[in-house]
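Quick entry, no commentary yet.
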Amino acid sequence: MMPPFEEQILRKILPSAEEDRRIQGVVRDVMKTLEGKIAAKGLRAKPLLVGSVAKGVHLTGTEIDIFVAFPADTPREVLEREGLALGDVLERPVRMYAEHPYTRGWYGGFEVEVVPCYRITDATQRMSAVDRTPLHVDYVLGHVKQGQQNDVRLLKAWAEGIGVYGAEAKVLGFSGYLCELLVLKYGSFRGVLENSLSWRPTTVLELDRPPARTFTEPLVVVDPVDPNRNVASAVGVEQMATFVHAARAYLQAPSERFFFPRPLKPLPLPKLRALARKRGAGLLAISIPAPTVTEDVLYPQLRKAHRSFADLLHRNAFQVFDSRFDVVGKEAVFLFELDVESLPRASRHEGPPVWVKNAKDFLDKWRRSPKTMAGPYIHGERWAVDVTREATTAAGFVKAKWRELGLGKDLEKTARTSVRIASGNVALRSGYSEAWTRLFDRRFPWER
């Protein structure tokens, strides 16, 4: 029996009877149109409804996912060309490029995706990651018990509210299929939350089949249709820990805020400046024009660039206290809070131990170098030399060195046109207010 409080939440997230009627109408029309086009072209392909609508676990405002399954002997280029052409049945179609290219558009007021895939009956036959999706639909429909659809809906809405829903590159969290399997495993929304309290970064969960290999991710949920796959592979340890903490907090004091958090209010610039002064750290903002690629292509590159900037600062004694990246309008923005914003001109550079044969190479190099301020001298058992830093500020150092970093293919192209680097109060631009607020405001979404 679902608690009355959760029944109230459910009423807010369930599609109305009218919305469901419109969804079914769109599904019927798109499938019929696709079947007609497939027949007219003489293709051996079949449209399949997948995703949350197919499983009856969709929320209000859902998107509709339709796969077009081609025989396994279809050449890859034919599948991609014809699969994309079929996507033109949608209004305002946009080509999206993932493992298989697919089309996203609109139909009857709903966002719809038309995705080509290979028709398989067993996960061992799969030729790409999307091919097993129809098998996931069959598994969930074959195992879900009456009433559990609403538990899945609650879990999805709750995970979205706490900020961990979605396995896509932007979020790296809990996918819809993962939420469905967790409800099948633990029986209900509350069952998932209660059992998650015992999760640790070595937890392995099975439904029907044991894992076929060893997984290294913090949370492992073995895919019942493919035991070589971890359904929770996208979930990082921080997202997992957030889920567990939120479950504990919700079970102690259930609140609507877990499902419908208040939006973050960006702090005005004077408050951000006052907060930065109070914290006493150095600030650095790096912005690069955001390439016009899909989020699934962009976000891995943003993570790579963020790591590269952080590693560069760390290697050169600018310790990063906290950092984040964001897309702000048409800019990719990397924000850093540093222990110090500037360093002394002198820096110690250590060489080999005194008794190593090639120590002479170190001595010869640094005795002649114009960068040498003092030495070479012995520090402990090693030769060392005091050298002049290339730049004494974090901003100056990044300006001098960013071209040597791996930022990701598309970001590197846009960086060639413009890289803006600002420090101190200049980094606190009004356009970045929300991004800086997210860095400084460490409250969870339900606490705002």
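second:
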Amino acid sequence: MKYRSEFFLLPAALLVLLTSGCTDGTDTNTPEIDFSPSATRTLVTTLGSDSLSVEIYTRTENEINGILVARSPSTYMISYTAILADDGTIQQFSAERSTPKSDGSREFQMSWTVSLEDGQATLVREGGQNPGSITMEAPHGTIPTLGRATAAGFVLEQVGLQLGDMESEEAETWLIYPTSTAPQQNRSMVLSADSISMDFFGSPRYGWFGDGKQLLGASALKTTMKSETRRSLPLDVDELADRWAAMDAAGTGMGTPSPRAELSRSIAGTDIEIIYSQPAKRGRDIWGTLVPYNEVWRTGANSATMFSTSKNIVIEGTSIPAGTYTLWTTFTADSQTLIINSQTGQWGTQYDSSQDFARVPMTMSSAPAFSERFTFSADETDGGGQLNLDWDNTRFSVQFSVE
């Protein structure tokens, strides 16, 4: 499959990345990763040149024991244990989430247990916002997880094992999250003898396997997460947690990957407002890669980008009545289009072309300065105004006037 070779990076690059936050060299003398079926799995998830999380777990015939430390929006740790039934499905699961502090201590946040038996699951939560117990119907083979947005490696591996030797078939996979009131079905599919896909918020996340169906790597490049997971040499997760917690305390932690931003300007007699989220470059190629050609892009991240004007305006010859819209874009190697859509308030993957109000061409030029994060700006011109979309070293612009 397309993404399989991408996890075979030099282990040293991963170690440098975890130490400094970005890759800046390699060491050809680094020992090789142990890929034997019984080896402890050390999985590093990256977002471009930034490390996002590290998960370490061991699997035996009877149980899985692991710990995950993640950095966004601030550092947290989850330790977990799964007790396996004779057929390899999970029958008991327990997890505890804590916050590492810069002094090396750990602050308890919440814990949860899941008991699975006879078509039912009992979820018990302690701490957090919704402590208590709930019993729900749960098909045999339902898999407890670490959270909807926490793409844990052991879950991918467990799905691969339970799908077994099915060939190119979609299967019923059921997941329980720490906040579940009922198991959620996940669209999972066997792609080949050693690879599967799982749904992640409507897009496929791929996982591939080695001997003994051990997880070797994963790719979420087709999802909105845009992350990659690779096996690594053993790492000290406590040391990483302490380092990342110290960075949080110093204000240099990872934070939210794509923070909310707002542009508010009065130009040529109209009030312009744009509310959007700002993804970062993180060492990646942007146009045609991170933002693919010939696909509609949300023009930011997270929720759909909101645009409002207090007066009627004309954008590149197209009249836009005063009001609120969402902005989308499409790119090819030779052209760029701004889409003004009448639907508002939706998530940024819920694009409905039937509600397009207008499509106007954008002009591409070199940005006046490098932009690590995607950024909107607006300038006043002799004839009205100019709306700019800057990212990396590129600017896309449209001209507008007030009616």
